[in-house]
Specification:
Blueprint lengths: L2 H4 L8 E4 L2 H17 L7 E4 L2 H4 L16 H8 L5 E2 L31
Parallel strand pairs: 1-2, 1-3
Length: 116
Amino acid sequence: MSDSASAPDANVIRVGTRKSPLAMAQAHLVVDALQAAFPTHSFPIDSMTTTGDRDQNTALYNFGGKGLWTSQLEDKLARNEVDIVVHSLKDMPTELPDGLVLGCVTERGDPRDTLV
């Protein structure tokens, strides 16, 4: 096999996110912005269900760890299974794992999206 056959395509940026409807909507907003800025690239979305999604009954303090909605995606990033991960900032731990950085934060949308 030649090197070019096994090398990743530099024009393909794999985007990791959760499978929840909100996470998917946020990932699509990011992908749309990236696609507009980099029209020669593609941004396939790789979604997954995280521990925080699967177990909705256990109290958060009983998990004993951080990143119920983020750590498994960060593991995929560390294993080079995705190139970037889209998280809701509210789900991010205050300290990132070694080797990971917060690459950007999108512009805030209209905060008046609540119906009382």
